[in-house]
Amino acid sequence: MDRIETDILVIGAGSGGLSVAAGAVQMGARVVLVEGGEMGGDCLNAGCVPSKALIAAAGAAWAPSRAGAFGVTAQVPQVDYAAVMAHVQDVISTIAPVDSQDRFEGLGVRVIRAWARFTGPREVEAGGHVIRARRIVIATGSRPVVPPIPGLDDVDYLTNETLWDLRERPGHLMIVGGGPIGIEMAQAHRRLGCEVTVVDGSRALGREDPEMSELVLARLREEGVVLREGVSVSRVARSQASGEAGSQGPDEPGRGITLTLDDGSTVTGTHLLIATGRKVVTDGLGLEAAGVRTGETGIVTDAALRTSNRRVYAIGDAAGGAQFTHLAGYHGATIIRPMLFGLPAKARTDHIPRVTYADPELAQVGLTEAEAREIHGSRLEVARFDFADNDRAIASRRPEGLIKAMVVRGRPVGVSIVGADAGEHANLWALVLANRLKMSQISAMVSPYPTVGEVSKRVAGAYFSPKLFDSDIVKRVVGLVQRWVP
Length: 486
Known about the structure:
This protein is α/β, with parallel strands linked by helices and 486 residues long. The protein has helices at 15-26, 41-45, 48-62, 81-95, 101-107, 180-191, 210-223, 287-290, 325-341, 369-376, 391-395, 422-434, 439-443, 454-469, 472-484; strands at 2-11, 31-34, 110-112, 116-118, 123-126, 129-138, 142-144, 172-176, 195-200, 226-229, 233-240, 255-261, 266-269, 271-274, 278-280, 312-314, 353-356, 361-366, 380-386, 401-408, 411-419. Strands 1, 2, 3, 4, 5, 6 and 16 form a seven-stranded mixed β-sheet that branches. Strands 17-18-21-20-19 form a five-stranded antiparallel β-sheet, with helices on both faces. The protein has a four-stranded parallel β-sheet with strand order 10-9-8-14, covered by helices on one side. It is globular and about 90 Å long. Residues 7-332 form the FAD/NAD(P)-binding domain. GO terms for molecular function: flavin adenine dinucleotide binding; NAD(P)H dehydrogenase (quinone) activity; oxidoreductase activity, acting on a sulfur group of donors, NAD(P) as acceptor. Belongs to the class-I pyridine nucleotide-disulfide oxidoreductase family.
């Protein structure tokens, strides 16, 4: 076998692994990158990029339905599902060169397209090579969880990895799982003309603030998405199903799928999407040979993202925490400091944003109200501002929304936002929490008028208003100044 000596070995060419490889090689380190699948990982090929491209197409299809509010008459759009999926693939192809093997080899990274397996604490075997590295980064990401539902193996079901192979529009898409992926794909497909049913064993968007998530779920119901919450799927079977001509499942023409729920009811559709979460990819890595411990959710790391083998780091989904592309990139930037410069660094989680890209969008930075109350108790203050009181939102006919800031001793510890482009508003609050800024600094910001972004300044105003306008002390001071100061 060919033997390679390197400073840094990165296993996995998703967003986290690519950020480490690019940063390290450009700062002078010798870097080897090993990837057995597609460059760019899940985000580019099956996750963030294709899903947002599909959501954009669905938004275009839905836009004419809102035109009447502006005094505009629009024609009913005709959806060509194959062309929509061609748009999705075009978006992937446009972004792919940034993550390509050619680009990284051009930067000086040695790229090996093979699956990796540890053979010792510092050695990995991949594609006929034995790679010995001073530091190793595991950035292998995650894959969809497929629950052990009786009968599921007997039907052709979809996951976020296989959904993009469809070229004929589903007649009735059934989705098991009401998390962000399930909700985003439910609304997108409904807007593209599919019947859609979502089944969730608990509460859809159950991790989010219920007040905020209900605004999203209410919109889905209004648009015709059927939400079955608090029921689980007990069995899956093939059945005769009605649907659009030419839109039957990938199984047999004229055949469909029936879900039997634990309350005895059934749902029959043409296609089934499983969106019940994701699990870390560690199988086949031979972590035992490296002395790397794993836990229930992934690889066990310390605050610096080091594993039980101090030469090995785990980042992104592999580290067993939240599963976001931007978190993987943040992890990658964090470990560069100790790996290249020997300086201490710790990964934080209190400022990491997350967004469900439904319409309206739902964004969360830091703690939800319930989490903040549990941690901070009576010290917590909650400030709110409705999008309906924002002039730009009114002019755009998008007044549905709310921003809520959880504040402790003048500093926000969490912000929840639901409304049009909530993810864009979350950028400001991610900056605020990352730098531990105060509400007074947000209040000092001058926003251009009219912008929906003013809601962030206005929620800071809502925090200070009771302290200023309802304070007898303030009123007495003002009275004295007006009476005695010339």
